């Protein structure tokens, strides 16, 4: 099962402050643990919302709003994607993140099988799997 651990933004992370050497070292050790356990699929920090945009969709079309965004509690400042055996294991890894404060949301990533009722023939899942294979091949190249 794949899970995304979403790091919630804080007023401090929204300033664009870079982590200290100590914070980078501590986080690097945690990331090494994820890699050694063979569960890390991806993980990145995000720039503050001042450098972002929101695209909102309606019947009239898509509207783009440039950041910054005021509701910090609704923003994400980074993420990890891990592959583990259970929700409990994902939560256990989230609890080990070396934050002094903050919040991490743990969400399971949907798989093709989750959408099977909407695709009774399997044709759409096959197309999706082919696209994923192309992406993986490009990443290895």
Describe what you observe in this structure.
This is YciI family protein. Belongs to the YciI family. It comes from Corallococcus caeni. Pfam families: YCII. There is one protein chain. The protein has about 140 residues and is an alpha+beta fold. About 30% of the residues lie in helices and about 25% in strands. It contains 3 helices and 6 strands, in the order βαββββαβα. The chain has helices at about 20-35, 85-95, 125-140, and strands spanning about 1-10, 40-45, 55-60, 60-65, 75-85, 105-110. A 4-stranded antiparallel beta sheet has the order 2-5-1-6, with helices on one face. A two-stranded antiparallel sheet has the order 3-4. Strand 3 and strand 4 (about 60-65) form a beta hairpin. The longest helix has 18 residues, at about 125-140. The chain starts with a strand and ends with a helix. The model has no long low-confidence stretch (mean pLDDT about 90).
List the helices and strands and how they pair.
Elements: E1 2-8, H1 21-36, E2 40-45, E3 53-58, E4 61-66, E5 76-83, H2 87-95, E6 104-108, H3 123-140
Antiparallel strand pairs: 1-5, 1-6, 2-5, 3-4
Short description:
The chain has about 140 residues and is an alpha+beta fold. The chain is about 30% helix and about 25% strand. Strand 3 (about 55-60) and strand 4 (about 60-65) form a beta hairpin.
